[in-house]
Design brief:
Chain B contains six helices and no strands. By secondary structure, chain B is mostly helical. Chain C has two domains: 29 residues; 63 residues. Classes of the chains: A mainly alpha (457), B mainly alpha (166), C mainly alpha (130).
Chain lengths: 457, 166, 130
C-alpha cells in the first residue's frame, strides 16, 4: 500500500512542480528523487514496514510476489528516468506533467498487480491507459504522434468497453466482483461466465498486444515519442502482464481446460506474427515494436503453464526484457536516424555505446549468459513442467532462432559496416547508466538465484 | 401486459431505434441527437429498475455534460469540406460478420439467465436508491472511489497537455 | 375515478409517474403546437424567404467553421468537476449516518480535486487568451 499512495502523491507533487520551477533541471532531480523514495518505500513494505494503515476492505492484497514485482517495476522506471529523462525535454513544453503521468501510470500498475476485485482491475487498467494516450500524443507538432494517439485512444477505449462488458457478464454469472470468492468450479457450463471470460481475455490480450489484437502496436510504438515508447513497451507491458496472470491464475484456474488451449494458440500466433514481421522491418524502432509483440508471445507462456516456475519466469522476463529494451531505446532517442543503416559503423564512432547495444540485443535474442536467455529458459521450462504443450515449446525455440536474425542485423550493422555518424552524443553519466544496465543484465543471467533469494527473503 | 411492461418495451424500442440512428446517420449532428435520445431512454430503463441515482447521473453527466463535449468535437471538425472517408467493402462485410458473431454469443450467454421473467423491478430492490448507494459507496467501495480521483487528475493533466496552447 | 393521490413512499419507480406525465405533456404540447401551426399557417415560399436567416443582412460564408480548442478545454474541465459534484449527492443524503469516516473519505477526494484545480489555475488553463 505504501507504493500506491506514495506514487499518487508524487504524481500530485510533479503536477505542482510544473508551475513551481522555472527551469527543467530541478524538475528532473525531483522526479528521480521521488522515484528513489518510492523504491525505498516499496522495499520497506516488502519487509513489513507500512507507512499507511489503510483498510482496503478486501479490494487489494499485496502478496510478496506482487510487492517484489512492484520493486522491479520501480527500479526499472528509475533506470528509465536516469537514462531518458533528459530526452523527454525534447518532446514538448510540459516536462513536469510527463513525470506526473508516469507516476500515475505506476499507481495503476501497482493496482493491477495486487487487485482482488475486478473493479480495481478496471480502474487500474484505466489509470494506466489514459495517461498513455496522452503521452503518445504529447509531441503535438508531430503528425505521426497525433495519429498514433488517436488510433491508440479509439482502439484502447473500445477494448476497455469490451472489458467492462466482460466484467458485467462475470458478475451476472457469479454474483461477485471478488476474484477470490467466485467459486467458478460450480459454473462449468455457464455460457454467461464463458462469454464474460472470453471478453476479459480479449481485452487483456489487446492491452499487452497479443496477436491478433496487436494491430495498434507497431503504429503506436512507432508514432509515439521515443522516450515514451520505451516506457510503454516495457514497464507498462510487463505490469499488465502480471495482472493478466494474476487474474487468470486466481479467478479462472478452475475452468483452465476451457481456455488453456486457446492461450497456447494465441502464444504461438503472437510469436509467429511478431517474429516474421520483424524480419522485414527497415527501421530499428519499428523492428523493436514487432519484437515487443514477439516477446509478449513468450510472456504468454506463463499463462499457458500457470505454475510456480511460470511466476518466477515472468519476473525474470520482466527484468531481462525491460532492462534491455529501455537501454536500446535510450540509445535510439539519441540517434538521428532510426533505420538499420543509421547504425552502420557505430562501433567505430562510439565503441562503448555499440558494445552496450550489442549486449542488449544479445539479451533480447536470448543468447546464453544473458538475462534474456534465462528468462526464455524459465518460460519454456514452465510449459514443459505443466505438460501437454510440447509443440508450443518446440515452436518457441524455433521462433527464438528466427528472432536472432533481426537482432543480429543491428550488431552486424554496427560492427561490420561503415557509415557516417548518426549519434548525437551522450553524457558521461548516461554512459555509466548504460554500463550499469549491461552489468545488471549479465549479473541476472549468471546469478538468478540471488534475485529469487530476495524475493523469498 | 401491464403498464410497466409496456413502458419497458416502449423505452427499448426508442433506445435501439435511436442507437441505430447514431450509427447510420450521415450527418454527425443527427448522430448526437440520437445519442441524447438513447441516453434518455436508458435513463427511463434505470428508473424502471429502481436505479434512481444512475438515472439522474446519466441525465446530468451524459445527456448534459458529455453531450456538450460531443457537440464541441463536431464544431472542432471541419464539416464543410465533405470528406467522405474511403470505405473498404470487404472491411464492412467482415465487420458485419464479426458484429453478428458477438451478438450471437451475447444472446447465447443471456439466453439461460433469469432476467426473462423479471423485466422490470418496480419498488423492489433498493440498492439503486441514492441513499443505499451512497452508504455502499462510502463504506464498502470507498477504496475504488478514492482511487478514481487519480484517474480524474490524469484526465486534467491530459486536458492541459493536449489542449493548452504552448 | 383514478386514484392520483401523491405517493408518500419516494423509493419506488412509481413516484416518477408525475415526472413521466409532465414529460409526456411537454412533448405532446410541442408536437401539437408545431403541427397545428404548420397545418393552419399560410405558406408562401419565395427565394428570399428560403434563405438562412442572418439578422436581416445577406447571408455569406459558412456557419460551420472549426472553433478554437480553448472552448473544448473549458468544456472538458467542466465535465470533470461535474462528475466530482455528482458524488456529493449520495454523500449529502447519508451525511449523518456516515460520520467522520465518510467525511474523511470525501475530504480526501476533494483534496485531490483541489490539487487538480490549483494546477489548472496556475497553468492558466482557464485563461481566455487568443
Amino acid at each position: 500500500m505504501n507504493a500506491v499512495l506514495l506514487s499518487g502523491l508524487l504524481g500530485v507533487v510533479m503536477m505542482f512542480a510544473s508551475f513551481l520551477f522555472r527551469t527543467k533541471a530541478p524538475v528532473r532531480i525531483l522526479a528521480i528523487l521521488g522515484m528513489a523514495v518510492l523504491l525505498v518505500a516499496n522495499v520497506l513494505d516488502t519487509k513489513g514496514i507500512h507507512f499507511f494503515h489503510v483498510n482496503t476492505t478486501g479490494f487489494l492484497s499485496f502478496t510478496g510476489y506482487a510487492l517484489f514485482f512492484n520493486t522491479i517495476v520501480i527500479a526499472c522506471t528509475l533506470i528509465f528516468f536516469l537514462i531518458s529523462s533528459k530526452d523527454m525535454q525534447k518532446v514538448g513544453n510540459h516536462y513536469a506533467e510527463y513525470f506526473a503521468l508516469i507516476f500515475f501510470i505506476l499507481t495503476g500498475i501497482f493496482l493491477v498487480t495486487a487487485f482482488t476485485n475486478l473493479l480495481i482491475l478496471f480502474i487500474g487498467i484505466e489509470i494506466i491507459s489514459i495517461p498513455l494516450y496522452i503521452l503518445t500524443g504529447s509531441a503535438k507538432k508531430d503528425l505521426k504522434s497525433n495519429e498514433a494517439a488517436l488510433k491508440y485512444f479509439l482502439m484502447g477505449a473500445f477494448s476497455t468497453g469490451v472489458m467492462l462488458m466482460g466484467i458485467a457478464l462475470i458478475y451476472g454469472a457469479t454474483g461477485t466482483f471478488d476474484i477470490t470468492k467466485m467459486n467458478i468450479a460450480g459454473l462449468l457450463k455457464s455460457n454467461l461466465l464463458t462469454a464474460g471470460m472470453l471478453m476479459l481475455l480479449f481485452s487483456m490480450c489487446f492491452k499487452v498486444s497479443i496477436a491478433p489484437f496487436h494491430f495498434w502496436t507497431p503504429d503506436v510504438y512507432d508514432g509515439a515519442p521515443n522516450v515514451f515508447t520505451s516506457f510503454m513497451a516495457t514497464i507498462v507491458k510487463v505490469g499488465i502482464f502480471v495482472g493478466f496472470l494474476h487474474l487468470f491464475y486466481t479467478a479462472f484456474d478452475a475452468i483452465a481446460l476451457q481456455w488453456k488451449i486457446w492461450m497456447a494458440v494465441l502464444a504461438a500466433l503472437t510469436l509467429l506474427v511478431g517474429n516474421i514481421t520483424a524480419v522485414f522491418q527497415q527501421s530499428v524502432k519499428r523492428m523493436l515494436a514487432y519484437s515487443s509483440i514477439s516477446q509478449a508471445g513468450f510472456m504468454l507462456f506463463a499463462l499457458v503453464a500457470m505454475n510456480e516456475t511460470a511466476h518466477e519466469g515472468l519476473l525474470l522476463y520482466a527484468i531481462a526484457y525491460c532492462l534491455a529494451t529501455i537501454g536500446v531505446f535510450g540509445i535510439i532517442s539519441k540517434m538521428t536516424d532510426y533505420s538499420f543503416d543509421g547504425f552502420n559503423g557505430l562501433a567505430g564512432h562510439q565503441p562503448l555505446v555499440a558494445l552496450c547495444v550489442a549486449i542488449f540485443m544479445l539479451s533480447l535474442a536470448g543468447i546464453p549468459l544473458s538475462a534474456g536467455f534465462l528468462a526464455k529458459f524459465y518460460m519454456l521450462k514452465a510449459v514443459i513442467q505443466a505438460g501437454g504443450y510440447m509443440w508450443l515449446v518446440i515452436f518457441g525455440v524455433l521462433m527464438a532462432a528466427v528472432s536472432a536474425y533481426y537482432y543480429f542485423r543491428v550488431i552486424q550493422a554496427m560492427y561490420f559496416k561503415e557509415g557516417p555518424n548518426h549519434f548525437s552524443g551522450i553524457s558521461a553519466f548516461e554512459k555509466c547508466v548504460l554500463v550499469g544496465i549491461c552489468v545488471l543484465i549479465v549479473f541476472t543471467g549468471l546469478f538468478p538465484n540471488i534475485i529469487f533469494g530476495w524475493m523469498y527473503f | 401486459m401491464n403498464i410497466t411492461q409496456l413502458l419497458f418495451w416502449l423505452l427499448t424500442v426508442i433506445a435501439i431505434g435511436s442507437a441505430l440512428m447514431i450509427v447510420t446517420s450521415k450527418n454527425p449532428v443527427y448522430s448526437v441527437l440520437g445519442l441524447i435520445v438513447t441516453f434518455f431512454a436508458i435513463s427511463g430503463h434505470y428508473i424502471l429498475m429502481n436505479a434512481q441515482f444512475l438515472a439522474i447521473v446519466n441525465i446530468i453527466v451524459y445527456a448534459g455534460a458529455i453531450m456538450v463535449l460531443f457537440l464541441f468535437v463536431i464544431m472542432l471538425m471541419n464539416l464543410s469540406r465533405a470528406t467522405e472517408t474511403l470505405k473498404n467493402k470487404w472491411l464492412q462485410i467482415v465487420g458485419a460478420i464479426a458484429g453478428s458473431c458477438l451478438f450471437l454469443v451475447l444472446i447465447a450467454a443471456l439466453k439461460n439467465t433469469e432476467i426473462k421473467k423479471n423485466l422490470v423491478e418496480m419498488g423492489t430492490g433498493d440498492i439503486g436508491l441514492v441513499k443505499s448507494l451512497g452508504r455502499e459507496l462510502f463504506t464498502t467501495f470507498v477504496v475504488p472511489f478514492e482511487i478514481s480521483s487519480v484517474l480524474f487528475l490524469s484526465a486534467m493533466i491530459g486536458a492541459v497537455v493536449i489542449g493548452k496552447k504552448e | 375515478m383514478v386514484n392520483l393521490a401523491i405517493q408518500t413512499n419516494l423509493d419506488t419507480s412509481g413516484s416518477y409517474l408525475p415526472i413521466g406525465l409532465q414529460l409526456l405533456f411537454a412533448a405532446g404540447m410541442i408536437v401539437t403546437l408545431m403541427g397545428v401551426t404548420h397545418l393552419l399557417g399560410p405558406k408562401r415560399r419565395t427565394a428570399d424567404k428560403l434563405q438562412n436567416f442572418a439578422s436581416g443582412i445577406e447571408s455569406h460564408g459558412e456557419a460551420r467553421q472549426p472553433i478554437a480548442i480553448k472552448y473544448f478545454l473549458t468544456a472538458i474541465l467542466f465535465v470533470l468537476f461535474d462528475v466530482e459534484v455528482i458524488f456529493f449527492y449520495p454523500y449529502a443524503v447519508n451525511f449523518r449516518e456516515l460520520g467522520w469516516s465518510g467525511f474523511y473519505a470525501v475530504l480526501l477526494f476533494v483534496a485531490f480535486f483541489l490539487c487538480g484545480f490549483i494546477y489548472i489555475i496556475r497553468r492558466g488553463a482557464l485563461k481566455w487568451e487568443d
